[in-house]
Automatic annotation (TrEMBL):
Residues 108-300 form the ABC transmembrane type-1 domain. Belongs to the binding-protein-dependent transport system permease family. It comes from the Bacteria. InterPro entries: BP-dependent_transpt_permease, MetI-like, OppC_N. CDD domains: TM_PBP2. Residues 1-26 are annotated as: Disordered. Residues 1-15 have a biased composition (Polar residues). PROSITE patterns: ABC_TM1. This is ABC transporter permease. The chain crosses the membrane at residues 44-64, 112-135, 147-167, 173-193, 282-303. Keywords: Membrane, Transmembrane, Transmembrane helix, Transport. It is found in: Cell membrane.
Amino acid sequence: MSNDPQVGPVQTATAPTPPDKLKKEAKPASLWSDAFYDLRRRPMFIVSCVLIAILLVMSFWPSLFTSINPFDAKTCELATARQGPSAGHIFGRDSLGCDVYARAIYGARNSIVIGVSTTIITAIVGGLLGLLAGARGGAVDTVTSRVTEVFFAIPWILGALLISATFRDADLGIWIVVIALAVLAWPMTFRIMRAAVITARNQDFVVAARALGASQSRVMFGHLLPNAVAPVIVIATINLGGFISAEAALSFLGVGVQSPDISWGLMIADARNRFLEAPLPLVFPAVFLSITVLAFIMLGDAVRDALDPKLR
């Protein structure tokens, strides 16, 4: 009989998990990381981003796209007015003999600058007022809500038309269009931000922050704003395309961008009287405008679907 002690089950040693890996595995996913993960797999988001990137490059460096053309946007020859496409003028010439392709490329700058500037102003003004009204409540909420209702009662395009026509001689350039659109468009952002803040202010994390003695400003900007800004980003992205089309409408009516500046709406207005004789000077800026508006609307829809868990 052997005197060796009984040998128990053999246990294999395992290497400890590195602390950084444990930290990475334990880190919870946030709304923004989940949204970005979802957006990368949406063809509509990818297509809209590619289109918007091309439009932005076109706005800031139009010479990259007009290098194939020997004429710039302001070189006009009346003797060649309304000529069709040719080797030197791939989109033809308009009623003043200007190159339609070059003007369509350079027209992107004013249209997109107006759309982006108006979106930024409305998001900041409407977002801050909505944050203040939703977080404070009481008299602040009542007063700002009544003021917002006054602006909602004004027809948007009609009000912008009136403002642009009134200050047409103020020599503000394209910024009069930005001001006219922003003055009447911020209430929509205000309402969305206010509703999101009212929903978030009764959540447990906000109540806990107040119980721990957090100041009102810390609660507003540290807790409420990050959790209420998602719908504002969505509506701002969608509205950007609407602002570009609104600028085209104002320019078409003669109170938007004025010559010698160039915009797609102004090009459409100049070509409308000769459409049956020469349709291309109207068709090409209209196509550029439609693609731009569609790209921003597609981007807004994709972002909305990614940020709203109910739509996934």
